[in-house]
Amino acid sequence: MTAKKTTTKKKPAKKPVKRTFKQKLLRFVLKFILWFNGICIFWVLLYKFVPVPYTPLMAIRAIEQKNVGKEMTCSHHWVAIEYISPNLQKAVIASEDGHFLEHNGFDFTAMQKAFEGNQKGKKIKGGSTISQQTAKNVFLWPGRSYVRKGFEAYFTVLIELLWSKERIMEVYLNSIEMGDGVYGAEAASRHWYHKEARNLSRYEAAGIAAILPNPLRYKPVNSTPYINRRKKTISRYIGYVKLEY
């Protein structure tokens, strides 16, 4: 007897699924969101351990200096928070964000007061916390657009989740603008007082904190009457701030 040959029927090849434009767009958006979040989280995690070498604001200021014919300068010396005087840490809390150690990145009471004041036509106030300012200084560009504020809120949430309060303060004090071409506590201390940041007195720290709203206009030494009043007020409040990171 001869064995019967069995023939296997080949399954017809599956036709590639054709996606509609709407499906393709949705797929692209989802991939973009995943990649965007992944890159941002990696970036924030990196700066949790690595000193911030340069910020967008430093680049913008350098371009502005060049455009007006000035020499491009950028004085920036990163130091660990152990080498920054507690007086300066307390001074910026007293002047910029009294609830820094208590909130989760946003001080909604301060934001509401700022909004109400601005609506009445008073001098514009931002109501931004130290966390928000850190997010803006390190990851974004200056400005008041809703898009920029949205990104600021996003990065504020990330650093509050992934960094400690001490790390936020460390990055803030090493990155913020403290004069024309002067960035960070160490560079500011040397520039304004010719000493290291860890040796700042209470009144000297208050002087640096007093100019932060507009460091290109004000100076902590040979100050205007307005800044002198701010220095005295901040210096007085430093004694009430407790550093409990």
Oligomer: single chain
Order of helices and strands: HHEHHHHHEEHHH
* Residue windows where pLDDT falls under 50 for at least 5 positions: none
Q: Report the structural category.
A: mainly alpha
Number of helices: 10
- Computed CA radius of gyration, to the nearest angstrom: 26 Å
Q: Strand arrangement, largest sheet? A: 1-3-2
Mean of residue pLDDT values: 89
Classify the beta-strand content into a percent band.
under 5%
Q: State the helicity in percent bands.
A: 40-55%
How many strand units? 3
> What is the makeup of the main sheet?
3 strands, mixed
Give the N-to-C terminal Cα separation: 90 Å
Globally, the shape reads elongated
What is the structure about, briefly put?
With 245 residues, the chain is mostly helical. Helix content is 55%, strand content 3%. It has a three-stranded mixed sheet with strand order 1-3-2, with helices on one face.
